[in-house]
């Protein structure tokens, strides 16, 4: 294929994408593919000679499309949303056409300076105070890994990278058991070891970390000759939206000189609305905060906003050329690859710029407020059904519920059957989770094109299918 065919193909793909998005609601949300079906439809060996794009495109429709789960479907209520607003898709198209590597300022000054400005726009949008600066990471998992490495190096007086961990005091990190699995993996990869991720007990219905238990654990570890290094807190956990009491836990972390990281991957987007910020009150005391515009804000994957109160510790941990530190911030040049684990970086700031300008903060706030209000209506309607119960309270646009008709002994099996039947039906897509060991069905609203009618359909589909189960 040559560039002189690109314009026509670009136009055709754009038309296709527009039609897809305008009719995606007619498709079953979850793919109905059986394991191996797509694999077997693909030739075993690569082609030796060129094929026409016409053939490739026809196979895309034939082979790929039936195997796609439609994350941009307005009735996608599973996991968390992974939005790709049209303005974001256009920005990605441009970024892909340029395909710059954005590791150093000089490898694309526009990308670096756009990233600085966009992270500051997001800082203002979330109501975070001035000292915070930001970097765009590829995922929340990467941001958390960078934060954990920083905790380790800071506690080891910057000797971990050079000497390794053997012979050093045991580095200890604190979190509850409710945090995302990306925290476990960051602990593995950092060499700290999962035995040194201390699970602090929770208290209350909110399942948040008990700050007194945190303090006791830090003191006990110090007493035992270990090295308390950092605290990882969560705002809006993946399973039920559980959040730690941020102000109280950060006060303990600060008093004991621990580095703190707040994982608000999903719920961080909600903080563009001042009325949702009380659930992370005190967050300005954190050293590091991550949230994913690629979940609820309309900016497509991958785009993780990582804020740092002072990037020096992170840069000292990850910069590969130590002399860089001497000019850091002084001459206005930032090399963002020194702020992250991967060297190569895509031009991710462009899609934030397009989305914030195309929708405005007011447009984005209106969407999020609708999602929360519609989730509340659905919550109230299900709560009013005699054979349904709410399992965990609504957190932003997320709550869990279960079907609990009288006289059924095995509610777990019944609810698992229900989720499977709902997803086979195809009109909506929900996922399940476990709460205190028992099965619950999870609902979250967050897709960019979702309407009130889409959310209300969940009530009808769920009650209809549940009562039809025999
Ligand atoms: C989605 C999510 C993550 C992981 O995000 P990635 O960007 O996919 O790494 C981490 N923590 C929480 C709370 C999440 O919801």
TrEMBL record:
A GO MF term: carboxy-lyase activity
Which Gene Ontology BP terms does the record give?
amino acid metabolic process; carboxylic acid metabolic process
Q: Which UniProt keywords are present, listed alphabetically?
A: Aminotransferase, Decarboxylase, Lyase, Pyridoxal phosphate, Transferase
**Pfam (any one):** Pyridoxal_deC
The protein in question is named: Aspartate aminotransferase family protein
Assigned protein family: Belongs to the group II decarboxylase family.
**Mind telling me which InterPro entries this protein's record contains?**
Aromatic_deC, PyrdxlP-dep_de-COase, PyrdxlP-dep_Trfase, PyrdxlP-dep_Trfase_major, PyrdxlP-dep_Trfase_small
Residues the record lists as N6-(pyridoxal phosphate)lysine modifications = 295
Cofactor(s) this protein cannot do without: pyridoxal 5'-phosphate
What are the record's GO terms for cellular component?
Answer: cytoplasm
The domain of life is: Bacteria
Signal peptide span: none
Q: Which SUPFAM superfamilies match?
A: PLP-dependent transferases
């Amino acid at each position: 294929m040559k560039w002189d065919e690109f314009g026509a193909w670009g136009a055709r793909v754009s038309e296709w994408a527009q039609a897809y998005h305008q009719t995606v609601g007619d498709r079953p949300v979850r793919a109905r593919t059986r394991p191996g079906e797509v694999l077997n439809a693909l030739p075993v060996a690569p082609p030796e000679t060129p094929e026409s794009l016409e053939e490739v495109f026809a196979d895309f429709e034939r082979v790929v499309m039936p195997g796609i789960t439609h994350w941009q479907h307005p009735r996608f209520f599973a996991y968390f949303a992974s939005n790709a607003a049209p303005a974001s898709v256009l920005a990605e198209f441009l970024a892909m056409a340029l395909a710059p590597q954005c590791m150093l300022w000089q490898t694309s000054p526009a990308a670096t300076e756009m990233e600085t400005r966009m992270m500051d726009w997001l800082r203002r949008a979330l109501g975070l105070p001035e000292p915070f600066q930001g970097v765009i990471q590829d995922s929340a998992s990467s941001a958390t890994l960078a934060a954990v490495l920083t905790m380790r190096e800071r506690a080891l007086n910057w000797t971990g990278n050079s000497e390794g961990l053997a012979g050093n005091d045991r580095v200890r990190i604190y979190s509850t058991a409710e945090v995302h699995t990306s925290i476990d993996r960051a602990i593995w990869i950092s060499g700290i070891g999962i035995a040194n991720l201390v699970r602090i007990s929770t208290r209350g219905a909110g399942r948040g970390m008990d700050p007194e238990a945190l303090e006791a654990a830090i003191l006990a570890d110090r007493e035992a000759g270990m090295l308390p290094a950092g605290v990882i807190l969560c705002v809006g956990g993946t399973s039920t939206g559980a959040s730690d009491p941020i102000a109280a836990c950060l006060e303990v972390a600060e008093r004991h000189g621990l580095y703190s990281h707040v994982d608000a991957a999903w719920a961080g987007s909600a903080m563009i609305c001042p009325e949702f910020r009380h659930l992370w009150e005190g967050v300005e005391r954190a050293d590091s905060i991550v949230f994913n515009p690629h979940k609820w804000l309309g900016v497509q994957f991958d785009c993780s906003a990582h804020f740092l109160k002072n990037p020096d510790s992170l840069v000292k941990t990850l910069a590969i050329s130590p002399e860089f530190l001497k000019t850091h911030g002084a001459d206005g040049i930032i090399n963002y690859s020194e702020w992250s684990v991967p060297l190569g970086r895509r031009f991710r700031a462009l899609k934030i710029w397009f989305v914030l300008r195309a929708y405005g903060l007011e447009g984005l706030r209106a969407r999020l407020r609708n999602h929360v209000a519609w989730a509340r209506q659905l919550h109230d309607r299900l709560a009013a059904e005699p054979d349904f119960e709410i399992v965990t309270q609504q957190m932003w646009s997320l709550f869990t519920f279960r079907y609990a008709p009288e006289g059924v002994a095995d509610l777990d099996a019944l609810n698992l059957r229900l989720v499977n039947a709902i997803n086979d039906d195809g009109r909506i897509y929900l996922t399940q989770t476990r709460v205190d060991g028992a099965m619950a069905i999870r609902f979250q609203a967050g897709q960019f094109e979702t309407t009130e009618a889409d959310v209300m359909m969940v009530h009808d589909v769920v009650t209809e299918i549940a009562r039809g189960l025999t």
